[in-house]
Amino acid sequence: MRFLAEQHRYLSIRRRLGADLSTDERILRRFTAFADKDGAEYVDTRLIMRWLESLPAASAGTRGARFRVARQFALWLHGMDPRHEVPPQGLVPAHVQRVHPHIYSDAEILAIVEQARTLPSVYGMRGLTCSTLFGLIAVTGLRINEALRLDQSDLDIETGVLRVRFGKLGKERMLPLDLTVVQQLERYGRERDRLLGRRSEAMFITCRGHRLGDCGARYNFALVCQQIGLRPRQDYQRHGRGPRIHDLRHSFAVRTMLNWYRSGQDVGREMIKLTTWLGHESPANTYWYLEAVPELLELASTRITSAAEGSNEGD
């Protein structure tokens, strides 16, 4: 279990430096488990490539991310012992292409939340937590890890403001919630603490009282989608392919923009609000939805054409 111990040390150091390791940790756990099972004494290029080949087929972006995580770990190990080998950078190219989002209909979102309530567990905590989590992401557009890292104290019930402390790149933001959302979170909190038998600091928890993790949230979401027909059913607890939990965030952004276009609002002026709400670095990241969703692109094109025609008439 040599590499497992080194993994814990490596991740601990990076956490203290403020890194967000939610994805990297999941990838690195798989690599160190493979290395220990393989009986390897040192990390080298051949070990990393054998590990990559042992994994299920994935996109170039995913393969590139796996390679990057393993290479960074090898680089750290090499700094302590030069017998570890660092693979050449770019050995596994990562042609990252943004996944075309699935935009959920209102009926699909309702079905996801309702089905999540039926997830079995001893005290009913699993269904309670997952249905509330999926519903919150759908109505706020939070990233999954932003939602999972929420504490009860991040919700100000009096003002209806949710504090997102762990946004991308460490940025914090405040989200004013609709009263119905606040009331739902308040009810969830009371029932969660009643089932747990004590007050929990974390907002979203498991039946054992631990903070719900990224893997657990994604697995339960995939299972719910399989049960309602949005993903094909799988054996051996596999997730399968299909709409993702992150697509709830995409759906929130797209519905917001569609409502602006349909109601005749100035989308350019409103866009900065959505950029801030979503925690994007710049409006360019938010405008990507115009290209990703045909209806939005058509509405934007129509708006631009109408504005141009109006300008020509004025000339």
From TrEMBL:
Superkingdom, natural source: Bacteria
Q: This protein is called what?
A: Integrase
Tyr recombinase domain residues? 99-302
Determine if Nucleotide-binding is one of this entry's keywords: no
Q: Mind listing the UniProt keywords for this protein, alphabetically? A: Chromosome partition, DNA integration, DNA recombination
**One Pfam family, short name:** Phage_integrase
